[in-house]
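Dear support,

I submitted the protein below through the web form. The confirmation email said the job was done, but the results page showed an empty box. After a refresh the structure appeared. I'm attaching both so you can tell me whether what I see now is the final result or a partial one.
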Amino acid sequence: MEISDAYIQPFIPTRDELLMEMEQYATDNHVPIMQLSAIENLLQMLRIQKPASILEVGSAIGYSAIRMAQAIENVQIVTIERDQPRIEQAKGFIERSNVKENIVLIEGDALEVDVESKYPSFDAVFIDAAKGQYQKFFDKYSPLVKSGGILYIDNMYMHGLSDLDMKDVPRRKRTMIRNLHKFAEWVIQNEQYQSTFFPVGDGLLICIKR
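What the results page shows now:
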């Protein structure tokens, strides 16, 4: 049974003016940011984990980075984005936030930038970028996660496409969905991680490194 938005809404706290502005900007400009129900779940998990450092793959306009930095006291967020217009938007929003000292924005392709030479380890990694590249992101950045650390991976539903028979998936999306399915199957069977799927928002995968 699906839980209605009306039921969930009282559990979503009021955001500050900057975050509300970012949410409206994302809606108006079709920028994919986490659904409110999903990010509240993510933030609560992070509050329980209490990571000192988080790597985010896919900054977009900086919304999730700001939310995570506000939720976790004294956390260091390193976030990567390759899209130049979104980089400029993220810079502006981060600069206006009350957590700008906690966020480092790295510009470039997450599969090409050198993060590990300056930041050799993280307590958590949050992946929210090109869905067809999740396996590559995981392979590149999971070695930086400390034992006991957690990888949080968003958009596993892919707006419901992951739950469809492949013949019903639009042709241009099929390779991406196949890659997403293969990645999900692989990580669930990977004994180095204890992985659980949370059906919130667009689907959140949680992988604890043993």
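Response: this is the final, complete result; the empty box was a page-load delay. The first helix runs from residue 5 to 8.
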